[in-house]
Amino acid sequence: MSAEKPAAPHTLDGLFRPRSVAVIGASRRPGSLGRSLLRNLFLFEFEGKVFPVNPRADVILSSKAYRSVLEIPDDVDLAIIIVPRDHTLRALEECGLKGVKGVVVISSGFREVGGEGLERERRAVEICRRYGMRMIGPNCMGIINTEEGVRLNATFSPTMPRPGRIGFLSQSGAMGVAILNHARSLGLGISMFASMGNKADVSGNDLLEYWEGDEGTRLVLMYLESFGNPRKFTQIARRLTRKKPVIAVKSGRTAAGAAAAASHTGALAGSDVAVDALLSQCGVLRADSVEDLFDMALAFTSQSLPRGNRVAVLTDAGGPAIMATDALPSAGLVMAELSAETKAALAADLSPDASVKNPIDMLGHSNHIDYARCLDLVLADVNVDAVIALYVPPVADEAIPVARAIADGSGTSDKPVLCVFMARDEVLDSVKREFGARLPIYEFPESAVQALGAMVRYEAMLERDPGTTPVFDVDRETAAGVFRAVKDGDRKNLTLDESRQVFEAYGIPFAKSRLCRSREELAELAGDVGYPMVIKITSPDIIHKTDVGGVIAGIRSFEEAQDAFDRVMARAEALVPAPRIDGVLLQEMRENAQEMIVGVTTDLNFGPLLMAGLGGIFVEVLKDVAFRIHPITDRDASAMIEGLRGAPLLRGLRGRPPLCVDAYVDALLRVSQLVSDHECILELDINPFMVAVEAEQCMAVDGRIRIDPELL
Questions:
Q1: How far apart are CA 265 and CA 173, in angstroms?
Q2: Which of 564, 589, 614 is the last residue of a domain?
Q3: Which residues contact 235 (CB under 8 A, 6 or more apart)?
Q4: Residues 695 and 599 in one domain
């Protein structure tokens, strides 16, 4: 039987698993980056050869120095470049001639400064591609691999990382230094770390793919400032998160430009909405801050995933237990209902004044023996999925024994145990030093609750079917013909009647409608539509009809229809500047249904975003909406609806029958296909889409589409 072939080397192995490193720009000067980085290679005990390169030095840190990488007699796998920007291109060229596999360019002065820097970066990438080298940077702080047999610390960080299972990607060098320092203080170990800098060659997506297949990396943390290729990120992250958790903190949350949007969807979609949608679809857990990022990492690195969201709180102090209890609902957690057997066993040895209901308050005199016994009992309860153990030390000497009891107890169960020590800094620090590798230890209850909530969400994502993207039988050519007619008319906004034609071509039911161009046509068309009815002004120049009084509902007779026709026409004709008026739309009125919205807007970086939510005239006030990156699956559509605050309105509330949510899901998926088939669509609203009890009663009653004619 033939031996199994070794895995083929990855293109990034030259960066993260080198057998030799050249430091181009190594320096004797104390405090310089070139000296700090070279020193870190030695201090971390890099397993390969190290070659300092400096044309003005013979020896640096007791190692022979070379004038150029070309003078090094051995092969060089990795080169770290820390030279002034005007010398970087020459250094890269020499690395290529030497046959270097990977380069990390610490030097700045590239795209981040604009002007000549842009051209300098373009040439750097061209050199790397010509010689087949992979490059991280420029303008970065370096890379780390703690793997046994490599032990590479090619950064200028003053903090030596602990070996561990966390892959950490940072787009900021300054944040990278702080991140490594904080990770060590928390006892978190790093498998690999990369400061990406300008991402001129190796991107964050490349690194995620690399870590996807790395057995030494079990958790991925990311500090992000931007997405280079969101669509590729989506593909990679969806695979990766099925194998290992990914937690990200994204800077730059502010929104700009939404006020100029023509649609409700565009007005609601700020710059951060796309990021939330993208990460949610991919299964990436989003942290609100770097502190939250590490809080989550503490839990994921030392505890098993919970099988549900039922939490028991074990404490020696009532106040912190109340804080934890109050925080549970916002994290998607619930208080576990302890079994009668568990409560009886707890009461057997605890003080009569103790509370054996959840939260379990053992009172302030409790010691490590109480914690050990009670924790075992609670973990054995089939109604409990996870435990948060809270401790407020009455005396400092008891902190270590209690922490040991909790750590030992958590090690006997596959249920996660998170610990909160509300103690003085020196007591908390001593507990973290001794037990931080075995227990996630927090200072406040809310931090533990939020971290546990993230674990529950991740477990639910793993259990969830990702769904499929259905393909419907539609009349694509009819929709395309409408778009061409709009372009020929030198317009971007479709009229309501044109929008209706497009929606109906894609199988989205639209309320019975007739375009009435004159008062003389009113009698015949009104009789055709029937009562009750809605009358709406139709004009390519009026986007939001209700804003100008162009909609009158509840019309129940021909006389009321005549009056409504006159009023909406008069209001439209009085507008300045005078709009083009096609007439009014007579439309059947759907009563006893819930108003919802289906929307699309286009983000410059992420492409089309789909929106679902409560609709009607108050959509921008209520803002009860959910977004996803296009295209969506049937599971995405359902999750959007489930996440709405108003979801109970659809499920049936206070005796009302449940509504036909499937019809609304179908409309979302058909709009997703519409956007896939016609890239000219920039914005789209179906508002409202009426969701009724019966599927045949669910339909769109208003809509608008804006296109980019240049994309036809």
A1: 36
A2: 589
A3: none
A4: yes
Can you name the residues that pair with 248 across neighbouring β-strands? 222, 286
**Do β-strands 513-516 and 583-588 pair in parallel, antiparallel, or remain unpaired?**
antiparallel
In a domain, 349, yes or no: yes
Q: What is the Cα Rg of the chain in Å?
A: 32
My answer on whether 161 and 44 are in the same domain is yes
283 falls within a domain: no
Residue 92 sits in the same domain as residue 203: yes
C-alpha 256/C-alpha 651 separation (Å) is 35
- Region of poorest pLDDT, from 99-108, 132-141, 172-181, 546-555: 172-181
Q: For residues 461-494, b (16+ Cβ closer than 10 Å) or e, as one string?
A: beeeeeeeeeeeebeeeebbebbeebbeeebbbb
Percent of the chain whose predicted confidence (pLDDT) is above 90: 73
Q: How many angstroms separate the CA atoms of 36 and 26, rounded?
A: 9
Residue 86 in this model has a pLDDT that exceeds 50: yes
Give the confidence band of 7 by pLDDT, cuts at 50, 70, 90.
Answer: low
4 pLDDT more than 50: no
Q: How many domains does the chain have?
A: 4
Class of residue 154 by CB neighbours under 10 A (exposed 0-12, middle 13-18, buried 19+): buried
> Is the pLDDT score of 477 beyond 70?
yes
The Cα 536–Cα 591 span in angstroms is: 17
CA 394 to chain centre: 41
Between 496-505 and 476-488, two packed helices, what is the crossing angle to 10 degrees?
A: 160
| Residue 262 binned pLDDT confidence (cut-offs 50, 70, 90) | very low
Residues 518, 644, single domain; the answer is no
The Cα–Cα gap between 141 and 190 comes to 16
Mark whether 220 and 318 lie in a shared domain. Answer: no
The pLDDT assigned to 312 comes to 97
Cis peptide before 30 (omega within 30 of 0): no
CATH number at residue 613: 3.30.470.20
Q: Same domain for 567 and 679?
A: no
Burial class (CB in 10 A: 0-12, 13-18, 19+), 530: exposed
**CB neighbourhood size of 416 (10 A):** 26
DSSP readout, 518-583?
SGGGHHHHHHHH-SSEEEEEE-TT-S-GGGGT-EEEEE-SHHHHHHHHHHHHHHHHTSSSPPP--E
Question: Could you tell me which residues come within 8 angstroms of residue 140 by beta carbon, excluding any fewer than 6 positions away?
Answer: 104, 105, 106, 173, 194, 195, 196, 197, 198
Burial level of 163, CB count in 10 A (0-12/13-18/19+)? middle
618 three-class SS? coil
Identify the domain containing residue 211 by its residue range: 13-225
Q: Could you say which DSSP state residue 590 is in?
A: P
Confidence (pTM): 0.84
Residue 165 falls within a domain, yes or no? Answer: yes
User: Residue 481 and residue 478: Cα distance in Å, rounded?
Assistant: 5
My answer on whether 351 and 378 are in the same domain is: yes
Q: Residues 242-257: pLDDT tens digits? A: 999 999 998 765 554 3
Question: Please, what's the b/e burial string for 434-447 (b: 16 or more CB within 10 A of its CB; e: otherwise)?
Answer: bbbebbbbbebbbb
Whether a cis peptide bond, with omega within 30° of 0, leads into 688 is yes
Using the Cα atoms of residue 288, residue 293, residue 294 and residue 297 in order, give the sign of their dihedral.
positive
Q: Which of 176, 202, 225 is the last residue of a domain?
A: 225
Per-residue confidence (pLDDT) for residue 260, from 0 to 100: 42
Task: Identify whether residues 358 and 426 lie together within a single domain.
Answer: yes
Question: How are the residues of the chain apportioned to helix, strand and coil, as percentages rounded to the nearest 5?
Answer: 40, 20, 40
